[in-house]
Amino acid sequence: MASRIKKPSRPTASRINIPTEINYDDHPPIFSLERLQLGKYCFSNMDGSHKASFAEAIFKRRNTSWAEIKKTGRHKLGFEKIDKKSINAPIPAFITEEVDHFLAFRFSGMKPMVGYRLRDVFYVLWFDSCFDLYPH
């Protein structure tokens, strides 16, 4: 006679803590290159020192919440808002009308990476190594 394998018991609702609403400002940013635009402002066009500076910039922000970043200076670990109309590059088609501004984080000295935030993810669209993506 074959022995039966006992099915694991299902967890009860009282043991599962499911947050009903998430405040993404309490989380550190997740930096994504998934939507990076090809061309002049692409990661692949930067030299090795700029690429290393990008890695260092996101590493420095790894434990800093969005709420803390908002309070930090724009030329330090914080960001500045850039009006969508002031970008000197084609705006990707997936950027909707609801997005009226982009964010610029410094990654190498004063050189900005520009993109947008969705929840706790910052999608980098451009690296402005030449300072001509928008009026500075």
Write the layout of secondary structure elements.
Elements: E1 30-32, H1 48-60, H2 66-71, E2 79-83, E3 101-108, E4 111-118, E5 121-127
Parallel strand pairs: 1-5
Antiparallel strand pairs: 2-3, 3-4, 4-5
Would you write up a description of this structure?
This protein is α+β, with helices and mostly antiparallel strands and 136 residues long. It has one domain. It has a five-stranded mixed β-sheet with strand order 1-5-4-3-2. Strand 3 and strand 4 form a beta hairpin. The model has no long low-confidence stretch (mean pLDDT 90).
Throw out a few tags for this protein.
single chain; 136 residues; alpha+beta; 2 helices; 14% helix
Summed up, what is this model?
With 136 residues, the protein is α+β, with helices and mostly antiparallel strands.
Tertiary shape: elongated
Unreliable spans? none
Q: Helix tally?
A: 2
* Classification by helices and strands: alpha+beta
Order of strands, main sheet, comes to 1-5-4-3-2
